[in-house]
Amino acid sequence: MARFIVVVLDGFGVGEMPDVAVVRPQDTGANTAVKLLNHFPLKTLQTLEKLGLINVVGDTQSVMKANPDANWGRAWLAHEGGDTFMGHQEIMGTLPKPPVVVPFQQSIDAIEQALLAKNYQVKRLEKDGLQALMVNDCVVVGDNLEADLGQVYNLTANFSQISFEQVRQIGQVVRSANGVGRNIAFGGFVNSIQQILDAIETKADPNGEVKYIGVNAPDSGTYDNGFQVVHLGYGVDAATQVPQKLNEVGIHTYLYGKVADIVQNETGTSYLSVVDTERVFELMHQDLQQQTTGFFCANIQETDLSGHLQDPRQYWKILEKSDKGLEQVIALMESDDVLVVMADHGNDPFIGHTLHTREQVPLLVYQKHIQGVEMGTRTTLADVGASVTAFFGAGLPVSGSSFLSLIK
Predict the structure, then answer these.
(1) Separation of CA 190 from chain center
(2) Strand, helix or coil at 214?
(3) Where is 393: in which H helix or E strand?
(4) Tens digits of pLDDT across the chain (408 residues)
(5) 3-state secondary structure of 129
(6) Which of 19, 5, 8, 26 is nearest to 357 (CA)?
(7) pTM above 0.90, yes or no
């Protein structure tokens, strides 16, 4: 058997989606890759150049050139906005459902009733005229204040009082009672619940109206000791995704970096909470040296973090580390192995805001002895997941069309 390898350069988009002017005008003009290449015109990324990055982005001021032997294309986002969580669910074969975008205040009654129906103890916490929920005196439920407001709700827990598995169960109840794109259940060992309560803040919408209440996650201390997290998406059914489809035919799935935190992979191997780029590649390289078959998928989160910081120099440093990591991946590949390098959205560090940008993503496909194939523009990231399952002869996920016929 052979191996299928996917490396997601988080946030490394290649130009605004065609619908940006209508659905996300703040991202007009976004092009993460081209702007970085133009900003560092004398620097090179030799592996990405070989894989066809310049073929995808077209003319730039960079000294890097198109490679006529590369297999390359683009993929569009089928999910709304540009979201790491939903982007990876889409890659795994999910057909994204349009979520609602509403403050926690509009969902609090339904969530409270769902929790009470499951016999949880629920209290309301008030600040600046808004309310959050506290469950069993150790979990606070409210808005996520770090993401686009109204798109994500958080459950912040003290693991000194409750187990991660119990928090996950509470998260499932909360998830069943609201329609926003993502619910995140997480926690760590903190001295007391008061540390989490002291981190509760409120935020205003663009019009200045205070609408959002939640825990400032970094200030809560939950990241510092024993942090664990599970992301629960709207309309995401793990039974229809790549890891489960592969498990049904005896193929093991290995996940590295943030993808391990956000994609369900109960029967596979997931390296959780790994952010450092070199460590992500180190883990992947170790497994590729030992395993002759399987699906291997890594998320390089530090590109995305650099975009949020609007720091192009740091972004380029991470791209250089990724380029070296990819070079080693290729060196470990056998003739039948397939490598896909892609992104999940954009994060243009020059756009003028710190949020993700809704961009098309590169689709760079490598297999020894296959050269010069133009993959075209795929209409969904799920085509990657469909190609993975087709590669192993597994059932297709719910969304996506395989592109394997183009490289066979």
Answers:
(1) 27
(2) strand
(3) none
(4) 799 999 999 999 999 999 999 999 999 999 999 999 999 999 999 999 999 999 999 999 999 999 999 999 999 999 988 989 899 999 999 998 888 999 999 999 999 999 999 999 999 999 999 999 999 999 999 999 988 899 999 999 999 999 999 999 999 999 999 999 889 999 999 999 999 999 999 999 989 999 999 999 999 999 999 999 888 888 888 999 999 999 999 999 999 999 999 999 999 999 988 999 999 999 999 999 999 999 999 999 999 999 999 999 999 999 999 999 999 999 999 999 999 999 999 999 999 999 999 999 999 999 999 999 999 999 999 999 999 999 999 999 999 999 999 997
(5) coil
(6) 26
(7) no
SS3 130: strand
CA 226 to chain centre: 22
Q: What CA–CA distance (Å, rounded) separates 158 from 137?
A: 9
DSSP H or E run through 237: none
> What SS3 class is residue 113?
helix
